[in-house]
Amino acid sequence: MAARNGLRVAVDPFRVFCVFRGFKFPFAFGIYSRAGPWLNAQVHIVLVEPEIPPNTGNVARLCAATRTTLHLIEPFGFKLDDAHLKRAGMDYWQQVTWHRWSHWTTFAAALPAGARLWFIESGGPQRYDQVAYGPDDYLVFGRETAGLPQNLIAANRENWLRIPMLNAESRSLNLSNCAALVLFEGLRQQGFVGEI
Q: Is there a contact between 179 and 141 (Cβ–Cβ < 8 Å)?
């Protein structure tokens, strides 16, 4: 256990080992507050078939800074050893709890009972700032060029969220920007628990 800015930081080596070996645990790292309660890194960002390495690297950096778990669902538009991916994530990859999934169905089968997923895609009936996020929600984003698969949207219309666009000529926002917008709205609603 190490101290940082008055907080006691605890890393459980067994859980860290298991996460990196592919076993399922709800978290790998945690932080004890001054008062002692365990604050789990339980918010999740899910990238479905990401295509552009710098976007995924930027999202990994975002996850490191916010203790958010990252899920990457194949197929990818790049190799995980891509230099652009590493450069965008810089040295933050070692600070990220992340999981690689071979397919959406594999990921979905591993979800805990009662898991709530929010599907962020243009055209959603609700804005991303109009819902109440929980500390263990999953924020799901699609490919940069095609978005989320339509079958996922159709099956989850009640959890389909949009980020408002104000210019009809602009096709879309950057994936990592979208992830940051929605994640920080969720963290804001929860009072930025664990802020250093």
A: yes
Q: What does the CA dihedral 47, 30, 187, 178 come to, rounded to 10 degrees?
A: -20
Residues 157 and 97 in one domain: yes
- Over the stretch 49-104, which tens digit does the pLDDT of each residue have? 999 998 999 999 999 999 999 999 999 988 887 677 777 667 788 899 999 999 99
Number of domain units in the chain: 2
141 to 13, 49, 75, 93, 138: CA distances (angstroms): 30, 9, 14, 19, 10
Q: Looking at the structure, tell me whether residues 52 and 33 fall in a common domain.
A: no
Residue whose token pair is 């979905």: 108
What CA–CA distance (Å, rounded) separates 149 from 88? 26
Distance CA 104, CA 85 (A): 22
Residue 159 is part of which domain span? 42-189
| pTM for this prediction | 0.78
